[in-house]
Amino acid sequence: MPRLNSALQALYGRVLRRNPGEAEFHQAVHEVLESLDLVTMRHPEYLESGIIERICEPERQIIFRIPWVDDSGKVRINRGFRVEFNSALGPFKGGMRFHPSVYLGVIKFLAFEQTFKNALTGLPIGGAKGGSDFDPKGKSEGEIMRFCQSLMTELYRYLGEHTDVPAGDIGVGEREIGYLFGQYKRITNRFESGVLTGKGLSLSGSTVRKEATGYGVVMFTEHMLATRNKTLDGCRVVVSGSGNVALYAIQKATQMGATVVACSDSTGYVHEPKGLDLDLLFQVKEHERQRLSEYARRRGRGVEYVEGGRVWNVPAEVALPCATENELDVEDAKQLIENGVVAVAEGANMPTTPAAIDLFQEAGVLFGPGKAANAGGVATSALEMQQNASRDSWSFEYTEQRLAEIMEGVHERCATAAERYGRPGDYVLGANIAGFMRVADAMLAQGVI
Ligand code: NDP
User: Quick one: 60-191 is in which CATH superfamily?
Assistant: First the structure.
């Protein structure tokens, strides 16, 4: 890891002591502090005011018990989390994740990243994240519903359209948001549509919300490529994951003329040099919730399924990690560079390890960090909140146009900040600085908060 100046190093030490054993959170904080080295040289007032340390401390952290009854009548217990990190710019906003790997350190890192990501959109939203160590795999519809209802029975008291507005993330899609919304409505006796985003269209959800993160990643990639007079048209693309973000990144990249040659799930990957069959992929993954091995089985010849393999071994000009944190390491980066990768954009949050990012940047590969590249999801959630507040619903075309403008703005903010601090094309630096300055200035304007 690059060194921090002595003041930031001391501050980082205090963050470590206050948040022991939370490796993902430490990693996310360190990455932001590295970028702030340059900022504090020009603006020592950010250090003197103590604002950096305050930004690293969540406003509120909620941990709670979620008891529920499985189909056999047995009582099960999970743990729920909501980290309300920063509300300087607007109501707390960020998704809920259901995955067995969830613990406080994961949710805290996601909420920290979310704070800067939301700032980068230019929209009035604060940062939060939540979730549970509940594993939705293999659970029945009834079990998922009872779990969601039990979670909301505790969480509802901290939410509100002007207070904290959750959405989906890994393991939480339209179905789960529907169950959470239904329980919130029963408990509060309010049809408060703006309290959750990612709702189905029948519950006053927004068009483009389910597509937004994946579409936004591809839009961001296109802007990065344009700085080198390139486009996605004709590129081979490799994507990790095959969930919400991955599927819609695959769809948009294909619409833009790219050939998506591979995608993965947690057990393996499929490789199809002529391009994936999108109809079958959506049928198997989105509608039937099956494994990729099933896609390969039905697709037959022409597709290779590699169980337990690394999707990053597949040659491509563009790589989009869209599964989970730290899923692309140094060995993967070396392989991608050797295979001639030109651009990498993070659909997932923190999927690339710090050493792998360094390798990409040293090799001149365009690198779009998640807090910029995947901001399209939360941005469209904010558009959903706008529609809910005005009891309106916008067309797909209009909403997608708004998303495109927002992604252009995110790219512009990152590029301008990177240039201003002497590192043109360094989107990691640009995203961290632009996001930090918007949040820090809003906090300072509100006194000691
Ligand atoms: P989904 O649950 O829809 O899909 C997740 C995908 O990633 C699945 O293919 C899953 O495979 C794979 N995956 C999950 N965990 C692991 C793991 N530990 N190891 C290997 N593969 C894994 O989630 P989303 O698509 O919504 O989210 C994906 C990423 O994008 C996350 O990092 C999330 O934080 C980020 N993100 C999501 C946004 C959204 O709007 N949904 C917004 C911004 C960022 P399997 O099915 O085998 O588990």
Answer: Leucine Dehydrogenase, chain A, domain 1 (3.40.50.10860)
